């Protein structure tokens, strides 16, 4: 699309492109709350009845994506309501089976309610937008028909590069990737094209306090993402996720607190809960008796707090039942401690297991028993190498079928990992009899398309196969392995250069 000046300004380009552009603008101009009540303001282009109907149908058919932002659903509802008979779609884009099925159900219901016929080109076009913005951009891409590898890689690359420049290991925050994934997915799908508002004052204050982090992020967003994300507002909102990570995750700049108290158990637990509510970045609150103070190794702690004053000791005191004012003052002190803490070697904290250990042990034992690193005398062609790899597998009942499926899947969603020499092949199929993870060391390097859709020289192939009847535990383990391959650059190096024993030990851990 282009903006042209001719007695004012107008948008020129194909009709479906202008329709999508209009849907984005309307999504940004109407609040989610107003849209849900049918209040479309002065935007008469939205027929109230058709738009409400479109919203109901879209919400019902997209209920299988519980993590989808309400604004994204609103965009699809507006896009559907704007469809008319006059549109001419020349090219039918290639779409996934899942997107096409959802689009067909949406148009079937919409056509029935509006008593209007819609062309197959419209159904396919709508499916292609579903593919682009939702189906191909799910946070767990394993075994999906289509997958936007470049988008997934860009999120991972942003976190990794910010970590490198700031010397802060943001990958330790287990939820940062997911938060950024959903934020940027929405920003790319429904971008704020004409920025009319500044950052909220509270966010501006945080940005000013973390100026270097903000500068690094803005430069990297410019380098990694499209131009329409290059706005002060978007820089600030993405930076906010990283800033929040510092204050949220006890894995990043963790703080250990020694709490000296002789209060009863219920009082102690309540106090600990209140401290963690204002300082979630606190990794550990170790409760000890006041009388044991002189025998405690204080080097294991960043901050010491007591419910009673200690003679001749300058230790901060907190009430057993602190006021809001006390908690806010404590929050500021702990934030200062976090920012100025001395990094030293400390005893590790044993992790708590919240899952059924027995089920995971059975699944992991089965998976480890199938693992091997194979030296393959391969053909120099990617397609023939995949065929050789599947021929080697003993847990496949129909090798020709699975070879075709893997190649088709890879063509849609290439999974060579940029700058590593690794390629990931994966499939869940009824033709797989047992779950397996196999690595192949190639005698001849081959060329394969990377997640960034660039040619990558591949020296090792990683094959993950899962049966249709696989348990949830097995699926969780396979997902964890795939994420370690793609997201964790330390593990990637081990997959890249390690021998079977080293990789086995890493998987076992």
Characterization of the model:
Helix 7 packs across helix 8, helix 7 runs antiparallel to helix 10 and helix 15 crosses helix 16. It contains 19 helices and 11 strands. The mean pLDDT is 86. The protein is globular. By secondary structure, the protein is α/β, with parallel strands linked by helices. It has helices at residues 15-29, 32-36, 48-61, 70-81, 97-114, 120-135, 149-166, 176-189, 201-209, 211-224, 232-248, 265-278, 324-340, 357-370, 382-392, 399-412, 472-486, 489-497, 500-508; strands at residues 2-5, 9-12, 255-260, 282-288, 303-306, 316-317, 372-376, 416-417, 422-429, 436-449, 455-467. The chain folds into 4 domains: 2-135, no CATH class; 149-191 and 198-248; 255-340, 3-Layer(aba) Sandwich (Rossmann fold), CATH 3.40.50.2300; 357-508, 3-Layer(aba) Sandwich (Mannitol-specific EII, Chain A), CATH 3.40.930. The two termini are 52 Å apart. The strands form 3 sheets. The protein has a 5-stranded mixed β-sheet with strand order 7-10-11-9-8, with helices on both faces. Keywords: Transcription, Transcription regulation, Transferase. InterPro entries: BglG_antiterminators (IPR050661), PRD (IPR011608), PTrfase/Anion_transptr (IPR016152), PTS_EIIA_type-2_dom (IPR002178). Residues 360-509 form the PTS EIIA type-2 domain. Residues 146-252 form the PRD domain. It holds the Pfam family PTS_EIIA_2.
């Amino acid at each position: 699309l282009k903006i042209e000046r001719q007695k004012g300004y107008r948008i020129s380009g194909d009709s479906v492109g202008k329709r999508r552009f209009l849907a984005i603008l309307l999504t940004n101009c109407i609040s989610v709350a107003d849209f849900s009540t049918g209040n479309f303001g002065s935007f008469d282009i939205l027929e109230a009845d058709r738009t409400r109907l479109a919203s109901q149908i879209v919400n019902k058919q997209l209920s299988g994506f519980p993590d989808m932002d309400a604004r994204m659903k609103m965009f699809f509802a507006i896009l559907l309501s704007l469809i008319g008979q006059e549109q001419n779609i020349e090219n039918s884009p290639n779409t996934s089976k899942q997107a096409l099925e959802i689009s067909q159900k949406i148009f079937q219901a919409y056509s029935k309610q509006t008593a209007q016929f819609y062309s197959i080109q419209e159904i396919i076009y709508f499916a292609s937008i579903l593919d682009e913005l939702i189906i191909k951009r799910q946070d767990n891409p394993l075994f999906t028909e289509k997958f936007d590898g470049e988008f997934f890689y860009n999120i991972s690359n942003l976190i990794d590069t910010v970590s490198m420049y700031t010397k802060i290991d943001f990958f330790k925050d287990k939820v940062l990737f997911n938060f950024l994934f959903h934020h940027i997915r929405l920003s790319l799908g429904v971008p704020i094209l004409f920025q009319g508002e500044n950052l909220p004052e509270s966010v501006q204050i945080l940005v000013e306090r973390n100026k270097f982090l903000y500068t690094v992020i803005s430069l990297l967003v410019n380098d990694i993402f499209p131009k329409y994300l290059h706005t002060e507002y978007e820089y600030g909102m993405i930076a906010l996720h990283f800033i929040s990570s510092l204050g949220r995750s006890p894995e990043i700049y963790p703080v250990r607190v020694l709490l000296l108290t002789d209060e009863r158990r219920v009082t102690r637990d309540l106090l600990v809960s209140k401290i963690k509510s204002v300082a979630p970045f606190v990794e550990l609150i170790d409760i000890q008796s006041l009388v044991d103070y002189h025998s405690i190794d204080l080097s294991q702690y960043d901050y010491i707090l007591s419910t009673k004053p200690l003679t001749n000791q300058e230790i901060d005191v907190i009430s057993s039942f602190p006021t809001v004012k006390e908690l806010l003052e404590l929050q500021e002190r702990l934030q200062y401690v976090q920012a100025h803490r001395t990094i030293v070697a400390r005893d590790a904290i044993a992790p708590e297991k919240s899952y059924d250990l027995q089920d995971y042990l059975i699944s992991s034992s089965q998976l480890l028993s199938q693992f091997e690193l194979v030296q393959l005398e391969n053909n120099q062609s990617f397609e023939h190498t995949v065929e050789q790899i599947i021929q080697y597998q003993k847990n496949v009942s129909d090798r020709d079928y699975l070879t075709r499926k893997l190649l088709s899947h890879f063509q849609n969603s290439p999974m060579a990992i940029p700058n590593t020499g690794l390629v990931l092949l994966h499939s869940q199929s009824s033709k797989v009899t047992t779950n397996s993870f196999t690595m192949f060391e190639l005698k001849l390097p081959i060329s394969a398309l990377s997640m960034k859709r660039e040619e990558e020289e591949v020296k090792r192939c990683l094959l993950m196969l899962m049966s249709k009847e696989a348990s949830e535990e097995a699926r969780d383990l396979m997902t964890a392995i795939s994420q370690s391959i793609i997201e964790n650059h330390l593990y990637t190096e081990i997959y890249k250069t390690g021998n079977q024993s080293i990789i086995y030990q890493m998987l076992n851990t």
